[in-house]
Amino acid sequence: MKKLNIGLIGYGFMGRAHSNAYLSVGRFFDLKYQPVLKAVAARNPEKIKQFADKWEFQSYHDDWRQLVNDAEIDVVDIASPNDTHAEIAIAAAQAGKMILCEKPLARNLQEAQRMVDAAQKAGVRTMVWYNYRRIPAVAFARQLIASGKLGRIFHYRAKFLQDWTMSPDLPQGGAALWRLDADVAGSGVTGDLLAHCIDTAIWLNGEMDSVSAMTEIFIKERKHNLTGKTEKIGIEDASAFLARFKNGSLATFEATRFARGHKALYTLEVNGQNGSLAWDLHDLHRLQWFDHRDEGVLRGWRSVHVTDGDHPYMANWWVPGLAIGYEHSFIHQVADFVNSIDEKAPAEPTFESAMQTEKVVHAVLESAQSGKWEKAS
Ligand code: SOE
Questions:
Q1: What does DSSP assign to residue 346?
Q2: What is the DSSP string of 226-268?
Q3: CA–CA gap between residue 177 and residue 164 (Å, rounded)
Q4: Tally of domains within the chain
Q5: What is the pLDDT of residue 1?
């Protein structure tokens, strides 16, 4: 089988999720190319060596430019903090590489557009790691909606709740806490958490027309790990918005890092003319389904265990009834990307289609400032 040489940038939480996916995918999926962990790059020379050894990368660099300019690398995979995405992606496009990039695509709309332009100019394949699309129950929800089973959609409802930043003693900045530093992250929960909800929503229910949002920074200052000084916080701790979709449906979205007791509660619900569906990340292998066309006396919510060979991706795993988890969504995304190479249709979302999510994120932040409804596409 032909090899696909991967050059990964970043060794954090996502560096591990992606490395695991490249190593596992060929054992479970029939692939046109076999990913090879060719090189990994990050700033800290010691840590990157340890990471390369642990995950069996063939080489490592403490400067991502060496990896991007290596003629043997086919795919540059950006799993480093948000402030690095644009510079690396543009250099990778100019070097003619395929590019995978962690979400959100960039810190803001302008940076994201420059990435899209560079990739289009170079004619290179791209994909953004919105992994929740590849959870079998979520992919199954998409099949049900696309088949028309729900009929006309009236409502979409999503939330992503966490509580890990509630302590005022938690500092901002540096390796593990760059998500709290506005210069690095771009935005707070809007780009970090709502971006997932928006990506899934657009995929399931089409484009959004307009949004009306509110955001809040509950803790206004935190010590900065890099300067040692107490500095202003520029990222929102909570963000909620109302949306109108182009198909006429109404929606509510909420994300926060201040929902005490919740660690990563991503839930979504869709209500249509004939039925409704609901999904919860804490029970990710189940899809709740209600069909109004059922016989009246038997009508009720069904909890479908999405582990059958007929369910999306599941034929590649165990026997019916045995569940898979979070990390598998990344494996599915690699499988889809690798098998899209040489095909006309790209694996979604590409940089270009992820701009729809970037536009909504931008509109949400604008609306929270202006206090007005803002166009989202
Ligand atoms: C933040 O805590 C975070 O890790 C996000 O950055 C991820 O994208 C999300 O999937 C889980 O939460």
A1: P
A2: TT-SEEE--S-SEEEEEEEETTS-EEEEEEES--TT-SSEEEE
A3: 11
A4: 2
A5: 84
199 — pLDDT class (breaks 50, 70, 90): very high
For residue 305, the cross-strand partners are 286
Give the pTM.
0.98
Q: Is 103 helix (H, G, I), strand (E, B) or coil?
A: coil
Q: What is the CATH number of the domain that holds 353?
A: 3.30.360.10
What is the C-alpha to C-alpha distance for residues 200 and 214, in angstroms, rounded to an integer? 21
Which tokens go with 230? 């107490």
Among 174, 170, 171, 172, residue whose Cα is nearest residue 47:
174
User: Which atom of ligand 1 is closest in space to residue 132's alpha carbon?
Assistant: 10
If asked whether residues 191 and 122 sit together in one domain, one would say no
Ligand 1 centroid to Cα of residue 190, in Å, is 11
138 and 100 in a common domain: no
What tokens were used for 239?
Answer: 């963000």
* Percentage of residues of the chain with pLDDT beyond 70: 100
Tell which of 68, 102, 131 closes a domain. 131
For residue 192, how far is its CA from the centre of ligand 1 (angstroms)? 6
CA gap 93, 88 in Å, rounded: 9
Atom of ligand 1 nearest to the CA of 102: 8
What distance in angstroms lies between residue 14's CA and the mean position of ligand 1's atoms? Answer: 9
Which residue among 82, 190, 192, 198 has the greatest number of ligand 1 atoms within 8 angstroms of its CB, and so is best to mutate?
A: 192
Tens of pLDDT, residue by residue over 245-256, are 999 999 999 999
**Gap between the Cα atoms of 271 and 158, Å rounded:** 12
What whole-number distance in Å separates Cα of residue 355 and Cα of residue 347? 15
Q: How many angstroms is it from 363 CA to the middle of ligand 1? A: 21
Q: Which ligand 1 atom sits nearest the alpha carbon of residue 257? A: 2
Pocket of ligand 1 (CB under 6 A): 162, 192, 196, 264
Q: Which of 193, 198, 200, 357 to mutate to test the pocket of ligand 1 (most atoms within 8 A of CB)?
A: 193
Per-residue tokens: 113: 């557009």
